[in-house]
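Hey, I was hoping to borrow your eyes for a little while. There's a protein on my desk that I can't quite get my head around. The fold is given in discrete form, as structure tokens running alongside the sequence. I'd be grateful if you could look everything over and explain what you see. Here's the protein in full, and shout if anything looks odd to you:
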Amino acid sequence: MRTVLKNILVIVFSTLVILSCNTKKQPNNVASAKKTTVVKTSSPNIILFVADDHGIDALGAYGNKVIQTPNLDKLAAEGTKYTNAYCTSASCAASRSVILTGKFGHATGSYGHVHDYHHFSTYDSITSLPILLSNAGYETARIGKYHVAPEKVYHFNTVLEANPRNTVEMANKCASVLKSDKPFFLYFCTDDPHRGQPFTPEEWDTPNSFGNKKEGYKNVETVTYNPDNVLVPSFLPDTKQTREEIAQYYQSISRIDQGFGKLMAMLKAEGKDKNTVVIYISDNGMAFPGAKTSVHEPGIKLPCIVKDPSVAETGITSKAMISWVDLTPTILDMAKVNYNKNKFHGSSFKPTIGKKEAKDFNEIYASHTFHEITMYYPMRVVRSNNYKLIWNIAYRLEYPFASDLWASSTWQSVYRADQEYFGPKKVQDFLFRPEFELYNLDEDPNELNNLADKEAYKNTLESLKIKLKNFQTKTADPWKIMWSHDASLQGTGVNL
């Protein structure tokens, strides 16, 4: 009897030990974490196609009649094209962290680049979009440019390898994902049209290649452009060097378009085009001075085209003001995944798809702190209806240059000649900026007439400052301390 009792006690004790081990709390960002829900049979596949440094200036669907982008133009004809879509930071890594988390970079530690010596990294407490979708039963796959860290935060079930400059090759490598029996999320990220190495050419006036090669790429038609025919955006100087670089930039974008077309053809061949949401965006504006790394319109106002087969209306141009911080909740909404809206800084813009107007989407925010680690220049932005306020927090510093933009022949043509103007702005004003910039974008889309010191706009300025402060409080922005040394977010400084 004692032996039997003893055996029973041993079994009970062992069971309790096993249960206590199994209930150990798992980090909420790990792929093996508890499933949040089960995908519904009607859950769509989702393709998020992200170009690298593609501005709104270089797409046929957005009015450029020179560049050849027939496949992306077709997407716009079959879906919704947004004309007020914004990234939150005009820097690759910082922007991509926002795309995949639904949170501003200043709240996640994603202040700038992750590669080489820059080494910024997202807090490991953050749960990203691919983790959430995987937990909900989606097959998650990525191909091409990654540029976020750490991997455990941004974990995808499948990682595909291909030349990120050859989007046709990339598309072909995605065949297995398109055949998935489960709903899939494909994160397709090109290196085009980012500037190509070497960033500093042997001759200063040699245009950057933007990844183009004389021999071209396998299965890709090389589409070239005459510099005399390109469209020079109004913020750039119309010089021989600028035109030559834009021609290279266009060529790189036409390569993107061919790979995108190939991917869409493969999707249709699999019979999944009627149940796949396709989203085309860029991480930031064109890689030219005055756009990339800047929070002026050419840097953060970007292409966004969404084709949702469940929406009947097609060929729609939407004026809704949306942001990349809205992408994660929007995709979760599309995937029919239950989520806590309070966990994100953005909100789903799914209700705006197929609609020309959206009254509730009339305000966006931007937050840029670093690009390269040597480029400290924090800026915060609010755009509310037609007014836009930029707060240059480090305005006493000279505006820093990205290394590739400084070496560009576009900039060097002005710098070496000691020109007074870079495009419509004085070089001095380009390099040294006021603390506040206030613009009426309806009347001044090129942001040339700063209203911040005008008495007639005093109330508008103060109203937008209040919005910025509230935004910083809501999103736990450490740089709120720069408002009169406001330390309300500072904490105790003691590790309890």
Q: What stands out?
A: Residues 45-482 form a domain with the Alkaline Phosphatase, subunit A fold (CATH 3.40.720.10).
